[in-house]
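Sat 14:20. Reprocessing the chain from the morning session after the first attempt stalled halfway. Input below, unchanged.
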Amino acid sequence: MFKLKHIITCLVLALPIASHATCRKVTSTSSLSSEIIAAGYTAKSWTGVSRTTGGDIGLPSVISVSSGDSFMPAGTLLASSTASFITASSSTAFTSNQILYRCALADADTLYEVYANQSNGEMSGRYETSDVESAYHTNFNGVAIRLTNLKSGNYYSPYWQSRALTSDEYVTDDTYIYIPASAFSDVYIELFKTASTVYTGGNSTNYYLYANNYASGYSTLRGNGMNTALVDGANEQTVYNGWYSDWPGQINMYNRVTFVRGAMCLVKDYPSVVLLPTISTSSLNNDETSQSTFDISLSCEDAAISSVGKSTSSSANVAMGFLVNQSTAVTAATALGLTSTSGLTHLLDTNYGSSGVASGVGIRIYDESGNALNLLSSKTATTGNTGGWYAYKDLTTSQGDSTDGITTYTGNFTASLEAISGETVTAGSVNAQLQVVVSFQ
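Finished this time. Tokens:
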């Protein structure tokens, strides 16, 4: 007799569970499909935003700050620039078509550019000033920085903010989303003078090459499995997961900006046009000149130091000069050998060499004592008299009218149209531009 046993068989089905692939950093074209490469995209190694790296943020290399309030009260905009994400983020610039990240197609609605001040450093973006909205103390006392994400229009703060990436900012194939450098926003940078004392632990000298290597702000991607802790409202001071290798964007003044602080001068009055009398080519060939005088006035704080010497941590030196601000005129004068070290000896027509423009002639500038002055070919400081800089008191005289610590200085100058030695004078018009400049050295 047989007993029939019921055999119960369990059939276990392995059902697929939907999951999103983690976003990943892209450092090689091996992570790109042939379709994406054929569309013109590329990839290469990038290191992220370590403290000693950073690119060109577009600010002037030297920024002047008045030690008094007459010329620059608190809130004065000292400098501004638009920092391109492509060139500002790293000492090795990205390209707009360089892929930085790859994510799954299913993650399209979870991709964000996130950005914040680096509040992890107290001297770089932690303390908001009391007198300029959304501006934060820097490592140079009396100067604050404000950053604006140009795609969102929002100011940076110590707290992470996010901006959703849109489909027109990235590219896809059948499997992945590829996020290029062009998807990230440029940053508008503003530097202000501030009287805020919320933070006073920075540098207070007269001459300071920005030596703090903390960035002022960061930007990066938040996506599935990538920088997920960087949510809106989280403080960068304590939440910085992914720093530094997974973060591509930063604004960093380290070793790029020099601040000079001291008593300063401003140009008070100058003629908008100086007319020179008409003169014949034969007269010019006989060493005759066409001349006209003009005056320049400066307003100087009484403590201003008149010198062409390089400013130091204890001394901010002020000099003046005449800048040839038209590139064609600079190029033409250089080609004719009308130079003195880094300066120029003659001012040429803005369109020198063009039809209808006189050639073989240039304008020289003389001081009140009849000394020919060299002219600035750029605003590069500390090039001395041969470069076109002069101690302002060497070219002007005090008018003895000190009021509220400000004195007027006036200089008398002569513009002289002359034949250029070794050149043939041809008839035509002469229309040249010159800018009077007064600056810390």
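The longest strand covers residues 406-419.
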